[in-house]
Amino acid sequence: MEQNNIYKTVFKVTHSGGSGSCFYLKAYDLFVTNYHVTEGFRTVAIHDNERNPYLAKVVLANPAMDIALLAAEGDFSSLPDISLAEDDTLTIGRKVYVAGYPYGMPFTITEGSVSSPKQLMDGKYYIQTDAAVNPGNSGGPILDEDNRVVGVTVSKFTQADNMGFGIRVETLHALLDTIGDLDRTVFQVQCGSCEELIAEEEEYCPSCGDKLPEGKKSYALSFILEDKTRTLDEKAIERAMQNLTAQFERQCGAHVRACPVVRDKNRSRLPVF
Asked: Which pTM value belongs to this model?
């Protein structure tokens, strides 16, 4: 698949709590995103690059992996097939591409290189890249030079530039290997310990007894940036958003999901989730 066709397989995820990115796996007829992008929602809207909306159900969530699978209403058989790389194909310095919808804006691809193929954080290994990663990129694919998915974009350090992270493709392989004939009519949570699929609201896994992750509260705030002398450009808005994101995470321990920008002449409204 040519790189200029990547945009056809990467969609924007939106709901009342914010937005993120997802990508289509033709072999499974499912969209992949982060669990934290859809957390608290059973149904979301997804939009292609031409802004066509589709209703999508969250059919599987694995909070421990931070991966969610979406089943969307519609015929996606004409979309290009995006393949998953095999495990352990990345090396330091290898070129990668981050695709998605940063800040809820139109589709972008940013180029970078692998800083670490196995960066250990919180007991798990992630891809570390210097490609630009921003709120709204979460859930989108990280691709290699052969247009294969090598990871799922998950976060960045707001206090540092050029430091983004992605879930390794081996984690996605492990999840897909367990789903079998997935029931696409119900929302299910997969236990991070025993891989049991749980369709009911449970505090503990009925199979292994492990405590399931608790839900988090979600709040919506908005800020208006205004310059009476000039129109705010993309760089000024991005700098302001990065500063706000850093302060929310540093002082409140909040996770900023996405920030769609609404412009009105010299003013830009920044919803923060």
From this structure: 0.76
Task: Give the DSSP letter of residue 226.
Answer: E
Which amino acids are annotated catalytic? 36, 66, 138
Q: For 14-56, write each residue's pLDDT tens digit.
A: 999 899 999 999 999 999 999 999 999 999 999 999 999 999 9
205 and 212 Cβ atoms separated by less than 8 Å: yes
Identify whether the C-beta of residue 64 lies closer than 8 Å to the C-beta of residue 213. yes
Specify whether the CB–CB gap between 37 and 17 falls below 8 A: no
In percent, how much of the chain has pLDDT > 70?
76
Cβ atoms of residues 87 and 173 within 8 Å: yes
Classify 126 as helix, strand or coil: strand
List the one residue out of 161, 155, 194, 197 whose CA is nearest residue 180: 197
Q: Which among 108, 105, 103, 125 has a CA at the least distance from the CA of 116?
A: 125
pLDDT in tens, 166-225: 999 999 999 999 888 888 988 998 887 777 788 765 666 776 777 766 554 444 555 666
What's the rounded Cα separation, in Å, for the pair 77 and 62?
26
Q: What gap in Å lies between CA 28 and CA 26, rounded to an integer?
A: 5
Using the CB atoms, write b or e for 129-156: b if 16+ within 10 Å: bbbbbbbbbbbbbbbbeebbbbbbbbbb
Residue 175 contacts by C-beta under 8 Å, 6 or more apart in sequence?
60, 62, 65, 67, 69, 190
